[in-house]
Write a structure and sequence with these properties.
Elements (H helix, E strand, L loop, with lengths): L1 H22 L4 H8 L4 H5 L2 E2 L7 E2 L17 H33 L11 H10 L9 H14 L16 H10 L6 H11 L8 H31 L5 E5 L9 E6 L3 H12 L1 H9 L5 E6 H11 L2 E4 L4 H6 L5 E4 L8 H6 L4 E4 L10 E2 L7 H14 L16 E5 L3 H8 L14 H9 L4 E5 L11 H12 L2 E6 H9 L13 H10 L4 E5 L4 H14 L9 E5 L5 H12 L3 E4 L9 H15 L3 E3 L3 H19 L2
Helix pairs in contact: 4-6, 4-8, 4-9, 4-22, 5-6, 5-9, 8-9, 9-21, 9-22, 10-12, 10-15, 18-24
The structure holds iron/sulfur cluster and Broken Fe4S4 cluster.
Broken Fe4S4 cluster binds next to helix 12 and helix 19.
Length: 631
C-alpha cells in the first residue's frame, strides 16, 4: 500500500514541479540549488556571531585555521552555545503558542466565541492544581486555572506544575541533575543570558542547561498547549480524514489553513459553516467552501473536526502551484516567506493574521481573539470573493489522496485499550493492557515518530520507511506533526495498514480496533507521548528510560525540533535524529549527546541519516532494553 503511495506521490510532485517551470514559479528546490554547497562552518556549528568582535569561524582541525574565537571561545563552547540558543528558540515558540491558548481560556465565556468544550478535563486539572470547583461556575474555574497557567511562564518561585505528572523515578533523576525547570520564560531568559558573550564557557554546563530549558517546553509550554486546547476545543477522538493535495476541490472555494495555534483555525472552521458564508460561496459560483489543513494547524483541525489535510510542511508551495487555492491563511511558525512571490503568480491570497508573524507582501488581516468569529468571517469572505479571480487554465489538482484515522488522544487510546477487556464488565480505564502486551512481547516496543520535512531527505521517504519497518517488527508507532501527515498520506493510519504489521501488532490492532500507526496530533502534542510513556512506566513501577521505547525525528528541520529532542532525552527516552544537527564541529558536544548524557538521563541521541540503518538501530536498542528488563 505505501510502496504504491510513494510512487504515486512522486508522480504528482514531479507534475507540480513541471508546472512550476511552465508557470515561471520559483520553488524551494530552485533556491536550494542556488545555495550550492552549504557553509561547512555553519553545518558543523563552529561559526559564532554572538558578539560584534566576530563573526568568528574556527577550525577545530589541529594546526589549521583559528582554534578559538577572538574572545577565546573553543569549538566546544561555540557549538554548545549555538545548540542552546536553538533550544531556547524552540522552547519559546511552543510556549508562546501555549501562552496564547491560556489567554484565550482566560477570556472564554458562556456567551462568547470561545467556550469550554471538555469540562471534565478542566475539572480534573483544577483538582490537580488545587483549584476549588464545588459550587462554582465552570467559567470561573476556567479563568482561575488559566491564570495559574499564565503564571507558569513567569512565577518567581517553584518549579513547573506539570512535572508532577512524571513517574517518581524520573522526578528523582531531574532532582539529582537539578534540571527541574522553574518558570518557562525564566529558563528561556537564563539560557540566553548564559550564552551571551563572556558568560558560560563550558559545553557540558550549556547542554545541562539546555535540557532544563527544553523540559520547560515538553512539560511546560507544550503540555499547556495540548491540555488547554483540549479543554477549549475538545479532546480529540478517532475520526476519519483524508490527506494529500487531492483533497483540493476544483468546484469549491479552497482555503488552506497553515500554521500552528488552533484558536484561529477553530474560528475559521466555524465561520466557514456559517450560512451567510455558504450563501456567499454559492453566489460567487462555487459549490461550497473546502477547508484543507497544512502542518500542525492541519493536525489540530483534522483531529477535532475531520477537516481534510492538504499536506505537510514541504507541500505549502505545491498547494499554491495547483492554481486552485483562493487563500492561504496562516498564523505562526513553519510558514515560507516564499508564499508571497508564489501566490503572486496565481490568484491566491496569502493572508497573515498574527502580529507575531507578519510577512512583507502578504495581506495582513489581524485575528482578534476578543472578536474572533467576526475576524474569522472577514478572512473567509476575502477568500470567497477571490474565487472569481481563479484562472481555469492555470488549475491542476493532483488526484492523489489517502484516507486514515486521526485523533488518538491519551483518553482515546485508553478507551480503545479497554476493548481488550470486556468493556461491559470491567473497563479498566488505564494503560495496563498496553503495558501487558509490551511485557508479553506481543509488541516489542513503541516509538514516537515526529517532526518536519527537510530537503536534505527525500520528501516523507524517511518517515514512511522507518514507520513501515517499525510496524513490520511489532513496534507500535505514535506520530505527530508533519510525520503524522506523511503517515496519513501513506495510508499507514488506515486500519487496513495492519496488513503491513508483524503478527503481534496486527493482532493487537485487530483486538483493539486501531491502525498500527496512531496519529496523536500536532507538535505540541508530543506532550501526549510523554504522558503515555510516563503512565506505562508508572504502571510497571519503572522509569521511562527502562522502557523499550524511542523517539525518532527522521526529517526534522526546526529549532522547535531541537527543543523537543532535548526534552525527550531529558525525559529518559532515546532520540534518533535522521538529519545531523550542527554539532559535529565539537568532539565534546558529540560525545556528550551520543554517549555521556546516558549516564545522566538514561537516554541518549543517535544520529543516522540512512533511514534503514536508523530503523535497525532503533530495533536493536529496543531489544537491548527488553533484555535488561528480562522481558
Ligand atoms: Fe567571536 Fe567570541 Fe564574539 Fe563569538 S562571542 S563572535 S567567538 S568573539
Ligand atoms: S509543523 S515544526 S514542519 S513538524 Fe509543527 Fe511540521 Fe516541523 Fe513545523
Amino acid at each position: 500500500m505505501s510502496d504504491q503511495f510513494i510512487s504515486i506521490y512522486q508522480t504528482s510532485e514531479e507534475q507540480l514541479l513541471e508546472k512550476a517551470v511552465q508557470d515561471g514559479v520559483e520553488t524551494m528546490w530552485d533556491r536550494k540549488a542556488a545555495m550550492k554547497a552549504p557553509c561547512g562552518f555553519g553545518e558543523k556549528g563552529i561559526c559564532c556571531r554572538i558578539c560584534a568582535m566576530g563573526p568568528c569561524r574556527i577550525s577545530p582541525v589541529a594546526g589549521k585555521g583559528a582554534q578559538r574565537g577572538i574572545c577565546g571561545a573553543t569549538a566546544d563552547v561555540i557549538v554548545a552555545r549555538n545548540l542552546a540558543r536553538m533550544v531556547a528558540a524552540g522552547t519559546a515558540s511552543h510556549s508562546d503558542h501555549a501562552r496564547d491558548i491560556a489567554h484565550v481560556m482566560h477570556m472564554a465565556s458562556r456567551d462568547g466565541n470561545f467556550k469550554i468544550r471538555d469540562e471534565k478535563k478542566l475539572l480534573d486539572l483544577a483538582s490537580e492544581w488545587g483549584v476549588k470547583t464545588e459550587d462554582r461556575d465552570i467559567y470561573e474555574v476556567a479563568h482561575e486555572v488559566a491564570e495559574i497557567a499564565l503564571n507558569e511562564f513567569g512565577k518567581p518561585f517553584g518549579t513547573l506544575r506539570f512535572l508532577e505528572r512524571a513517574p517518581e523515578k524520573r522526578k528523582k533523576v531531574w532532582d539529582d541533575l537539578q534540571i527541574r525547570p522553574r518558570a518557562i520564560d525564566r529558563e528561556i531568559a537564563t539560557i540566553l543570558h548564559s550564552t551571551h558573550i563572556g558568560c558560560t564557557g563550558d559545553a557540558e554546563s550549556l547542554l545541562h542547561m539546555s535540557m532544563r530549558t527544553a523540559l520547560a517546553d515538553g512539560w511546560g509550554g507544550s503540555m499547556i498547549g495540548t491540555v488547554f486546547s483540549d479543554i477549549l476545543y475538545g479532546t480529540p477522538v478517532p475520526r476519519e480524514t483524508e490527506s494529500n493535495l487531492g483533497v483540493l476541490d476544483e468546484k469549491q472555494v479552497n482555503i488552506i489553513l497553515h500554521g500552528h495555534e488552533p484558536s484561529l483555525s477553530e474560528m475559521i472552521v466555524m465561520a466557514s459553516l456559517d450560512p451567510e458564508m455558504q450563501k456567499l460561496a454559492k453566489k460567487v459560483g462555487a459549490e461550497g467552501i473546502n477547508l484543507a489543513g497544512m502542518c500542525c494547524t492541519g493536525n489540530e483541525v483534522t483531529m477535532r473536526h475531520g477537516v481534510k489535510i492538504a499536506g505537510n510542511f514541504y507541500q505549502q508551495e505545491m498547494a499554491v502551484l495547483t492554481g486552485a487555492v483562493e487563500a492561504v491563511i496562516v498564523d505562526v511558525q513553519c510558514i515560507f516567506p516564499s508564499l508571497v512571490p508564489i501566490t503572486e503568480c496565481y490568484h491566491t491570497k496569502f493572508i497573515t493574521t498574527s502580529p507575531k508573524a507578519k510577512i512583507t507582501g502578504a495581506t495582513h488581516i489581524e485575528f482578534h481573539e476578543d472578536r474572533a468569529l467576526e475576524s474569522a468571517k472577514a478572512i473567509v469572505r476575502e477568500a470567497i470573493e477571490n474565487f472569481k479571480n481563479r484562472k481555469k487554465e492555470k488549475v491542476f489538482i493532483p488526484t492523489e489522496k489517502s484516507s486514515g484515522v486521526v485523533g488518538y488522544s491519551v483518553e482515546a487510546i485508553i478507551k480503545q485499550l479497554d476493548k481488550v477487556v470486556n468493556p461491559h464488565i470491567d473497563p479498566m480505564g488505564t494503560i495496563k493492557p498496553l503495558a501487558d502486551v509490551i511485557k508479553a512481547g506481543v509488541l516489542r516496543g513503541a516509538v514516537g515518530i515526529v517532526g518536519c520535512n527537510n530537503p536534505k531527505s527525500k520528501h516523507d521517504y524517511s518517515h514512511i520507511e522507518i514507520m513501515k519497518k517499525m510496524i513490520a517488527n511489532d513496534v507500535i508507532v505514535v506520530t505527530t506533526g508533519c510525520a503524522a501527515q506523511a503517515a496519513v498520506k501513506a495510508g499507514l493510519t488506515n486500519k487496513d495498514a495492519r496488513k503491513l504489521a508483524g503478527q503481534g501488532l496486527a493482532t493487537v490492532c485487530e483486538l483493539v480496533d486501531i491502525p498500527p500507526v496512531l496519529h496523536l496530533g500536532s507538535c505540541v502534542d508530543i506532550s501526549r507521548i510523554m504522558t503515555i510513556v510516563g503512565e506505562v512506566a508508572k504502571h510497571m513501577d519503572l522509569d521511562n528510560s527502562d522502557l523499550p521505547v524511542a523517539g525518532i525525528a527522521p526529517e526534522w528541520m526546526s529549532e522547535k525540533a531541537v527543543a523537543i529532542a532535548n526534552y525527550v532525552v531529558a525525559t529518559g527516552i532515546d532520540t534518533f535524529l535522521g538529519i545531523t544537527p550542527p554539532v559535529t564541529g565539537s568532539e565534546e558536544v558529540m560525545d556528550i549527546m551520543t554517549n555521556r548524557v546516558e549516564a545522566m538521563t538514561g537516554a541518549k541521541f543517535f544520529i543516522e541519516e540512512d533511514p534503514h540503518v536508523l530503523a535497525d538501530k532503533v530495533l536493536s536498542r529496543i531489544e537491548e532494553k527488553r533484555q535488561k528488563l528480562g522481558i
